[in-house]
Structures are given as C-alpha cells and as structure tokens.
Amino acid sequence: MESTLIVQHNILYSRGYQKVQRSEHYFPDHALGIMLAGESSYYSTGGTFVMNEGTIGLMRRNQLFKKLKKPGPTGEPPTLISVFLDQEALHQYASDNTILKQRVYKGQAMIELTQNEFLKGFFHSLRPYIDHPERLTAKLAALKTREAIELLLQTDDALASLLFDFQEPYKIELETYMNHHYQYNIPLACFAKLTGRSLSSFKRDFAKIFDTTPEKWLQSKRLEQAHYLMSTQNLRPSAVYLEVGFENLSHFSTAFKSKFGVKASDLSTGTGL
C-alpha cells in the first residue's frame, strides 16, 4: 500500500505501490530528489524526465507535471527522498550570503544531477532518518536544506538564477495557457497563480474569454478530448480518464454519458457515436 512519511517539514520519504501509479502534481517549491528504487516518469509541456534507481534530479518550482510511477525490474516499489527548497529558506540564504537579484530563469524545468558525488553523499546522509524521523529536528532539517543549496551552487553557477529567481508568475494570456494545460487536474487557485492572477480575477477574465465558468469549460474540454481519443484510437475509458484530467472513472463515465448521450464504454468498442 502507499506509504508517505514526512520526515520533517520540507524533507519527504515516499514509498509507493508495487504497481503502476498515475498522478498529477503542482510544485510550488523547487524539489531536489533521489530515486532509491523503482521508476518515476514526469511529463510536462517542456518534455519528459525519467528517474530510475539512483537518479538525482532538481525540479524547478511552479511546474505542472503528470507523473507515472512503476516498480523496479525485480518488483521493488518506487521509493524517493525529496528535499523541498522553500522560498523562505532561499530568501534567508540569499540574505545571509549577499546574493544579488537574479535574472529570470529560462532553463529546463528538470535538471539531472546523478553524477554529482557530493549530492549522492548528501542523500546517503539522510537515509538513517527514514527509520528514525524523530532524530531529524527542525534545526537539523534547516541545516540539511542549506547544505543542499550550497552543493547545488557548487555544482553549477547557473543554478543561482533558478534557485534565487523569486519572481512570481506574471499575468499571461489566459486562453492559450488553458488550452495547453486543461488536462491537469489541479485546483482553480493553482491555475490562477500560474497565470499571474488572483482567484477572483482569474474567474472574471475566464468568463470574459470563454463565456462560461472555469469548472464547466474544463469538464467540457476534457470530455471532448476523451471522446476524440477513444473514437480515433479505440482506447477504453480506463485508459483515458486520468489522461484528460478526471479524478475517477465513475465521475468520468457519468459526465460522458450526460454530455454525449452514450456510454463511454460503448464508444470505445465501436458501438456508440
């Protein structure tokens, strides 16, 4: 069964199922992680990043990803240690070290750092706390976070612009963004932040552009995409409902029947529309 343990406020140990799992994630903070077992694949509009056993990766904040977790070749469940580099810790580090304002980061959303021996040693030092989380006090966790920042800066000077880019998402063109990201099942507040708006201004701008509410538009858009995938690729509902942004198959099936007047299962077997 799924077992996720928060060792300390920003350090996470996660052990998954011995089967394929699909999920979606919004990362408000930078995340530095190592794959201890199994495999995790991250899919975004910027490409795909695969973490196998031993892979170390740095993920930029304010990103949307679809995630696919698989067991390893001998059946071991996907297992991961992550350190989240929150804005408070980074602001404090920048202040303590007189780090000047950085240019806007425009590089990759995920960076592989597997060959860094110091980062390997860093994660090795965290492993004893998996069995003894009470030993990792808040003070130690803060020290470990600063250590991670130091090691990243030693790895590549260019990472400073990623770590210390404190600008929040600016207001962007809403219609294009939503048409490219509607399949991510995240709260409306996250869509609002990622498009540089408050929730109220997001809803107001959305209504002006699409002449409907975000909730109604998202469901309709996801159902239309599901209809296209099943009718053109003969996919079953169980293969598409997560892909287009629905949380569960039951809700998807009910909504599909209401919109198109036919069961999704009938369409995928060629007996529907």
Automatic annotation (TrEMBL):
SUPFAM superfamilies the record matches: Homeodomain-like
PROSITE patterns reported in the protein's UniProt record: HTH_ARAC_FAMILY_2
Keywords assigned: DNA-binding, Transcription, Transcription regulation
Stretches assigned to the HTH araC/xylS-type domain: 172-270
A Pfam family: ExsA_N
Transcription listed as a keyword: yes
PANTHER family linked to this entry: ARAC-FAMILY TRANSCRIPTIONAL REGULATOR, HTH-TYPE TRANSCRIPTIONAL REGULATOR EXSA
Name of protein: AraC family transcriptional regulator
